[in-house]
Inverse folding.
């Protein structure tokens, strides 16, 4: 369990990952979760990649990462991705060694699971789902029970979700991002898939652990299945309210990874960047 003070309130994260914060006028000093891009290098070249990653993409500086996060309260989550973070495994290993006891999660494509280094031990492993590699993902998740399978509504189908529900305890549904290569990938097939997701997502609620990012919440209108009171207890806030995005490759920060408005990190601290994001939301 993690518990830490964040500005004028306390945050508690239980052993099963449930986050508890009080109600009222909350003024966080740190984002509770930071989406961190560490590399734009990736050889998967997915046609829908919103980061437009490529085999010759650039990567982050581990010393700057340490500068930014060394004072971070234990309990703040870093959701580390790319690109393919395993392309910079030695840098990640160094960074992890200097941030012991923190919530450091890493997301990789199923295409790269076979290269997972045993020495890298994040708090959780996000796996971007590839249908043809389903059995390999099952085998990996059996060995790494803290794995979370990621599905993108519109890219993956409702049938993919149904199949994953049979074999995986934890699933994260991501919204479709019309950013980067996601702009040209979007077509009638994706559009019809999103319609089916919206129509049928209610069939899967209440089974095992199914969670959504904010974009999926909007696109699938997830809140309609709950009373306002229940939804207010579960919904963890808008993008930029308790979260932010850091691109350590381009040295930029933003409200989220799909934000068109980006700002230079310069020599700012994370709390300073986060305060600027929150002022923009006011």
């Amino acid at each position: 369990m993690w518990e830490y003070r964040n500005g004028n309130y306390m945050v508690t994260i239980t052993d099963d990952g449930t986050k508890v914060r009080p109600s009222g006028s909350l003024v966080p000093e740190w984002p509770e979760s930071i989406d961190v891009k560490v590399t734009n290098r990736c050889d998967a070249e997915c046609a829908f990649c919103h980061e437009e990653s490529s085999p010759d993409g650039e990567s982050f500086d581990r010393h700057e990462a340490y500068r930014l996060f060394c004072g971070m309260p234990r309990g703040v989550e870093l959701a580390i991705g790319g690109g393919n973070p395993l392309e910079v495994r030695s840098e990640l290993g160094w960074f992890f060694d200097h941030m012991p006891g923190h919530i450091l999660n890493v997301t990789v494509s199923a295409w790269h699971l076979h290269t997972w280094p045993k020495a890298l031990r994040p708090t959780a492993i996000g796996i971007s789902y590839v249908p043809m590699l389903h059995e390999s993902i099952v085998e990996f998740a059996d060995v790494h029970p803290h794995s979370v399978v990621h599905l993108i509504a519109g890219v993956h189908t409702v049938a993919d979700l149904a199949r994953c529900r049979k074999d995986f305890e934890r699933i994260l549904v991501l919204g479709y991002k019309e950013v980067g290569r996601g702009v040209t990938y979007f077509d009638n097939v994706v559009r019809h898939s999103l319609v089916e997701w919206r129509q049928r997502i209610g069939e899967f609620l209440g089974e095992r652990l199914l969670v959504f990012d904010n974009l999926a919440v909007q696109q699938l209108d997830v809140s309609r299945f709950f009373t306002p009171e229940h939804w207010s207890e579960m919904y963890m806030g808008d993008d930029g309210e308790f979260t932010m995005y850091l691109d350590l490759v381009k040295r930029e920060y933003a409200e989220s990874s799909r934000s068109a408005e980006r700002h230079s990190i310069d020599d700012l601290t994370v709390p300073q960047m986060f305060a600027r994001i929150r002022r923009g939301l006011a």
Q: What stands out?
A: The chain has a mean pLDDT of 94.
